[in-house]
Amino acid sequence: MYVVIVYDVNVKRVNNVKKFLRQHLHWVQNSVFEGEVTKAEFERIKATLRELIDDEEDSVVIYKLRSMPAREVMGVEKNPMGDVI
Amino acid sequence: MYVVIVYDVNVKRVNNVKKFLRQHLHWVQNSVFEGEVTKAEFERIKATLRELIDDEEDSVVIYKLRSMPAREVMGVEKNPMGDVI
After folding, report:
1. In this prediction, does ipTM exceed 0.85?
2. Is B30–A8 a contact, with Cβ atoms under 8 angstroms apart?
3. Which residues are Mg(2+)-binding (chains A, B) (predicted)?
């Protein structure tokens, strides 16, 4: 499964979220990570995110795709996908 | 075509980008929009974004999908998709 994760997390917690996701996914740009994950990895990622965020204030949206989607980049590509493929 | 657009744009220009995308797409959360677009709309959106951003400083990533992807939301859903479907 391929996931794109975008988050809107209070500055008090955002560094923990970023640090955690960086261990599992490719950082795309500010508040966006993506990558291929197994079902087990996906469940672990969600379980940890649940611990890191405040349910009543923060927001995480996870797009679940079959494979890496087509993309177009405009302006600066902050962290080119080529580096990990 | 279904697009998810994430941007990382300098605060000097970000309101213009947000205001423009809001006219065409569904606001998901901070710096993320998505929606169904025709090929013509997609080209117009890209042309305007090119004018609004600074190529050397800002970044826009557009994921191009066939249809609205599966998603999971954790915490607050800032702007539920149900409102537009």
Report:
1. yes
2. yes
3. 8
